[in-house]
């Protein structure tokens, strides 16, 4: 009797452990997708703090670009008169919450670029943590949002270079939390697959 009770508890415990681990992993990257969208919502009202320009096109609300137009790294310019504090480090993250599609972001959020620790407003002195990769939405997957998140920090970001294999389901929340990044502004453009 006593043994059976222990056995049952043992089973229940293993079941709960397996179940919570599985659902934990599944939910994890969904929360990162949600986080990107939350940051976009919070940062968009301050979008005029920085400019993102591809060729002749400056990214604004509802900007749509083709894969070709957005395949090379854009020119970035932060307006330092609008920054709250000086002598801090700038970090820019470009990330797609809609991978492989907005309805089913199973691979999201997908990382496209991180340049960190810049003190110049054009990021020319920044450290590339993840190489720029232009949009490549699979055909038929509709519009993808390429979200630019501009952060500041008092200390430099310390992070290993992100490899191509680590772009999908990028742990953006961990990256922001570990490096004590504060969101300054956000904007996005879309490219359709
Ligand atoms: C930087 O330091 C200041 C002063 O201690 C603080 O108010 C601010 O929140 C810090 N910024 C970030 C992004 O942590």
From TrEMBL:
Top-level lineage group = Eukaryota
Instruction: For this UniProt record, give its keywords in alphabetical order, as a comma-separated list.
Output: Signal
Task: Look up keyword Cytoplasm and say if it applies.
Answer: no
CDD domains given in the database record:
PEBP_euk
What are the boundaries of the signal sequence?
1-27
Q: Identify one Pfam family in the record.
A: PBP
Q: Answer whether the UniProt record assigns the keyword Repeat to this protein.
A: no
Protein family membership: Belongs to the phosphatidylethanolamine-binding protein family.
What name does UniProt use for this protein? Uncharacterized protein
